[in-house]
Amino acid sequence: MRHYLFFVFAGFTLAADGKLSFNRDIRPILSDKCFACHGPDAKAKGIALRLDSEEAAKRDLGRGRRGIVAGDAAASLVVQRITAPKAGMRMPPPTAGVTLSESEIETLRTWIGQGAEWEKHWSLIPPVKRAGTIDSFVKERLAKEGLTFSPEASKETLIRRATLDLTGLPPTVAEVDAFLADRSAQAYGRLLDRLLASPRYGERMAARWLDAARYADTNGYQYDGERVMWRWRDYVIASFNKNKPFDVFAKEQIAGDMLPGATFEQKLATAFNRNHRGNTEDGIVAEEYAVEYVVDRIETTSAVFMGLTMGCARCHNHKYDPLTQKEFYQMFAYFNNVPERGRAMKYGNSPPVMAAPTEAQQKKLAALNAEIHASDAAVSAKAGIVAAARAKWEKSLTGPQAWAPYGERNAAFSFDDGGAPGRLGGAQMFDGTAVVKGPEGSGAFDIEDRFTISAWVKGNGTIASRKSSDGFKTKGIGFYVIDGKLQFHITSQWESDALRVESEERIPEGAWHHVAVAYGGTRMAEDALLYVDGKPVKAKFVSDTLYRPFVNAGNKFPAPLVIGGGAGKEQRFRGLLDEVRVYGRQLRADEITVMAAGRTLAELAAKPKPERSAPEELQLQLAFLETAAPDAVRQAWVRGQELRVERERFERTFPSVMVMAESPVRKTTNLLIRGAYDKPGDAVEPGMPAVLPPLPAGAPNNRLGFAEWLVDRGNPLTARVTVNRFWQSLFGTGLVKTAEDFGQQGEWPSHPELLDWLSVDFMDNGWNVKGLLKKIMLSETYRQSSKATPALLAKDPDNRLLARGPRIRMAAEMVRDAALFEAGLLQERLGGPSVKPYQPDGLWKEVIMQDMDYVQAKGSDLYRRGLYTFWKRTAAPPMMMNFDASQREACMVRENRTNTPLQALNLMNDVTFLEAARFIGQRMLLEGGTEKDGRLRHGFRIVMGRVPTEKEMGVLRASLSYHLDYFASHGEEREAYLSYGDTEAAKGIDRGQLAGYAAVASLLLNTDEAITKE
Amino acid sequence: MMTRRGFLHTAALSSLLTKDGYAAPLTGLPHFAAKAKRVIFLFQHGGPSQLDLFDWKPNLAKVRGQDLPDSVRQGQRLTGMTAYQATFPTAPTIFQFAQHGKSGAWMSELIPHTAKIADELCIMKSLHTEAINHDPAVTFFQTGFQLAGRPSIGSWMSYGLGSENQDLPSFVVLISQGRGNSQALADRMWGSGFLPTKYQGVKFRSGKDPVLYLSNPEGYTAGARRRFLDDLGQLNQARLEEYQDPEIATRIAQYEMAYRMQSSVPELADLSKEPESTFAMYGPDARKPGSYAANCILARRLAERGVRFIQLFHRGWDQHGTLPKQIRWQCEDTDQATAALITDLKQRGLLDDTIVIWGGEFGRTVYSQGELTETNYGRDHHPRCFTMFAAGGGFRGGYTHGETDDFSYNITKDPMEVHDLNATMMHLLGVDHTRLTFKFQGRHYRLTDVHGKVVKELLS
Fold first, then answer.
1. pTM of the model
2. Contacts with B84 from chain A: Cβ below 8 Å
């Protein structure tokens, strides 16, 4: 195919005018057939002749031999060698795996004869706008081929085409009728405006962006556990709907976090470059994958925005494009400064992450804050009354009660009846044998829960634990004093899946000390804070690789909370423990200080006020407010505290998202020899490849500067690559067919001047995407009928010349969305967590590890649009894969379509499409009048958007009558056929009729037309 | 999509109807006369221990329990699972080895059935790989590259060589679950990467739908479906006449192929008509749908029907701990059926042009992961040498290639890259591995990347 196409274009070229163009005609040949050896990497291979630069190709190689002698093909070494009669002498050699065709040889010969004029690679020359219009450029080209535009498509076709292109869904029958009825000249323009204003537009545009950004709901690689990135997906939808200028959209995603005063949304945008896969396997070398993530960012960023295959320069100088290996690592340096780890979290997001509340959550949070503020104000308003009442209360205090912070008190052991003298009242003596069990369900935290354990200790051993069995290395949580040092462990698997921190200093022996650990649920050692006597202490991170929750699909974790032991006999506590408290939240430092005040309320009250420390005074105040203040104040205070608990619980429900961040100190980047993580070469500074423009004046030399450079007016690539991709979304193929490669190996644009015109126009209009799409869709080029003729097919099989409109199969998610929409089943709701619609049983089970299974949604989540379908990279949704969706393991910008029997089976037999057919059948019955013909016509219009021909009606009538007869006499089969899908049919519909019309609807859904944009 | 657009007209539809199921071979392929027409790849997923199956090291008994000498380990990187171990106690196999066949190949007592066909096997003891963890190692094995994104072997072969069966896909994947420690598989291991999606492996599953969405809905008979397709054909034909789009012709053909698959696949998957002798040969497990043994019978049936590439995955070979117990299970589940498949193919005259390959993504360490006891040990991943075997299709039977040192740790003779195995396999299929390429992102990619050589010694 490729050779055939090339031949066609070469043919056009020669027919058009005799003069050959280096960029158009010669470079593609040299690049594809010669550069691999005689290109930028030639020197490394010990090859003298280079053909990638004019100077090198024409220089004297010794004894007057030159690769190319301008104007003299026969004297040129290149021609001599590509036409050498001896096989051993002939280029390219068999080992190159490529051959030159006769016409290619002839083209080279002609060009040299014409003077061998060189040109800089077209895509590196900034685009200029020649006067013209979309149609004038296309027509100009067609005229050279003796072709003209096809007639305009029918209005029915046009509205369906435009609606599919801009919303991803077909038009309704009513929309078609309204459009047909609108005979004004502005009807079509108004249609486009309506579609561009629809929120569905953002969903449609986002779908392809997710492919490019390799977005998924799992981490990939082996465990392929779940991650949470959908807030970024929703950012993309919202950005398209807002018609955010594309340069802003790009800049935010590359470096939103570094913009001055970065907003929540700008930070959220940077998740773009955290969408790459993350390896979580136990045995990996983390450094190896840390490199892969950066490489993925460069490959994705350069393919999506610049159409460059930068990844090729990772191990050696680029073989085709003027990019050196060093330049690759200079670019690498821009993306290498994220405080991240090579080993990703097995479950959930890997740092850096941020909480990403939805808009509704942000509103609710603001309301909660206001309420908290009001409660606090109510308490402070009564300060005078409180002070007086408190003085009275203090005088009444007796007994061993102490006070501890309010909120999420999970368990407390005062040990006042423990028999030994304690720090506060009595204490419990532990002798290394007995332990104290906590109440049922206490301390039942998992690795992502926040919690705090505090105690007064005098001795060594386990303070508190919750373990799968009585052992030190077993799964669970443990808080210890060992050899005088405070230790906190969360163990999922001792060697490779555990968090362990240990205080650097020893706690002085022989006295009471207050100790605490406050853990924030992030699975990171830095988030397990140790305190001794109310002060944070420095800790050593002994292990910082905690990944797997205790409770997962395959495992429960019912272990009890144990005080003084539970973590192995050797580690049982010896000594005294007092006031062991367990909280279901991460206490703040000031709260821990209050506990460490270490006096009973009565003792504190007995102290004269000036002698009390701040924590002591605070403890009295808080204890009073909670337990003894006048009712109105106490209730307001308690309400305020409870709201705080509620707020924290609420905040924990916020989705998180992985984002980009900059390490404060820039990491050194080294060139990696042959791309290997463990073979660092020279250190490199961040910088742009020499062949591209430098950073704009004043731009910082970091990721933000890179982002600014990317969308700078002087960048020759970004606008071209972007408009080309939007063109591709409308026409199926870009003006540059290789949408991911604008380099030397990429294809020459079919309409270079049009591409440049669109690019400059796009930038001139503020990178306005909706404007761009509208402009293209208003063109005559776009509005042509997609009917072909044998002559046109023979001349231009792939419709690159655009003498007809696009006729292409819908993208995977559109095939499903359209069926659901036509059935009236589609649940339209923008954004939200990914959903799990129908999927054949067991697909995950047969390939995955033990602990993740597909739990199918119920109710409305079965019917959301495809871009919300949960995407597991290693076992992607089968319907999507059948219809050529990108696997989402790596960036994919070119649209790919095949035509297979699996697609046929999918449409005929998948419950999704059977249920959709049933509901289209129901609509035919309920909305199509009382006559068969009216109903059939209605069904046909629902699916195709047009009125059927008489011939088609004949087929539908026959099919209906066959199915009605069949189901009339096969009651059991009828009920079985109608049983697909969770949603019940409307009441009162005749079952035989429903089955008959459902079968016809299935027929409609299976036509080529139903899944094709015409 | 790749080849036909533009050459097709309505008149060509009749030939399409019979021909365009899965693609025809690429122009110019095969590059030279092929010995083999198809491949059955029995992938043992997880990394079977070469030390307990094929690579007999009698001298290890003398150094049992001793720390693996540094001179052997040579500072090689270890996985994160044993890197923390203080010692690396040498763990000889506890299984008995003996020589088998005329060739005198050493095999352990774990695989008595395989031992009986020793002379059919071309045993390769000197394979090695760069990857040290499962996911990259299997991805490398199946696609020639450790990271995702490239086509799998079967996709390459079906892209290059096309199909020999009008009613079945050219690349079929069968998965069975082992009893040992299992690791995850991923779609990409049989995916088409940057090749068109139609070349991806089609997973056959046990149960009602051997291929996803194969069965008509309940209550909908094959007769009704035939009628449905006739009506559909008329609607599509009308559109084709109006629009002249060859894709419509292809669509019509694909629906017909789907219809044929609705009978050909269940017929293929239905083992009930296999004689008693088949089950006696493949073992009692063969009656369990989805078992490795049942999949081996299916593999033979697929081979008989001309399917180009038949990829089995049997999970459960990742024996980090309790290796002796687990590997016994794995061998009980696979040994008889593997040997039966090769024997069966031979009896049917199919072995001559069918390549059978057995092996996993890497080997296992000679030192014990975890405690070494009289009856128990574990082994970590070992990429520096491992054993595979091939049979039929022009591979040299009764031959053992390559040697390893006394610890089965380093290769001492004839090292073989995974790319070499692929190059050799392709050679036997009539494909020059340097010439089957696909241009993507500006590069001419091939399965063997820039590596691979045909290992002549392996050829019969």
1. 0.88
2. 495
